[in-house]
Design a protein that fits this description.
CATH topology: Potassium Channel Kv1.1, Chain A
Order of helices and strands: EEEHHEHHHHHH
Structural class: alpha/beta
CATH superfamily: Potassium Channel Kv1.1, Chain A
CATH architecture: 2-Layer Sandwich
Shape: elongated
Strand content: 5-15%
Number of domains: 1
Radius of gyration: 21 Å
């Protein structure tokens, strides 16, 4: 039996880091549910969640998930938002009890919830973000808003959008107002 002088070419593989157990980077985000059927990719982080709740909360995500739906396997969805923002957004959808109304959250969490809640049309998440932004940076005395915080006027929402957008532009090149501002202002009418 003679050996074939031409052996098949081997595939190139990515270099392994010393930290990697099996060559796969640790990319699990929070939230991560082992029995979830949807894997969301944001940057180099993955989040595993339940598709039913996402579909129930967001018509935009529902449409994306239904395009890729196959009951027998996992659904992979890539979002162009930062991993930190997606984590904040998903935590508010899946574990809102972790963030009671009487406790303040940091600006990045509130900003992410406001932006992504508007972008993916999840009013409860967007209002949570707006409430915490206005609590931290009131445009006028806090008591003057009254019910306006829970049901914001277009002026209050526009002030919050401007604040979030100016903060967000320090870290990104794209403008938030063009993508989400029109959508948010229609909710407040």
């Amino acid at each position: 039996m003679s050996a074939n002088p031409k052996s098949p070419k081997k595939r190139k593989t990515a270099p392994r880091d010393e930290d990697d157990d099996d060559g796969i980077a640790n990319r699990r985000g929070d939230p991560w549910y082992e029995d979830g059927k949807v894997t969301i990719h944001a940057g180099d982080v993955e989040f595993r969640v339940y598709g039913g709740l996402l579909k129930d909360r967001s018509e935009i995500l529902k449409a994306e998930l239904e395009k890729k739906s196959d009951r027998s396997r996992m659904i992979n969805l890539r979002l162009d938002d930062s991993a930190e923002d997606v984590s904040a957004f998903l935590r508010m959808i899946f574990r809102p009890q972790d963030y009671p109304d009487n406790e303040e959250v940091d600006f990045e969490m509130a900003s992410a919830c406001f932006r992504l809640g508007g972008k993916y049309q999840v009013p409860a998440v967007a209002r949570f973000g707006l409430f915490n932004i206005l609590r931290a940076f009131p445009a006028s005395p806090y008591d003057d808003f009254g019910d306006g915080i829970r049901n914001p006027t277009p002026q209050i929402a526009l002030e919050a959008i401007t604040l979030v957008d100016s903060h967000h532009l320090q870290y990104r090149e794209s403008s938030f107002l063009g993508r989400t501002g029109r959508c948010w202002l229609t909710w407040t009418r």
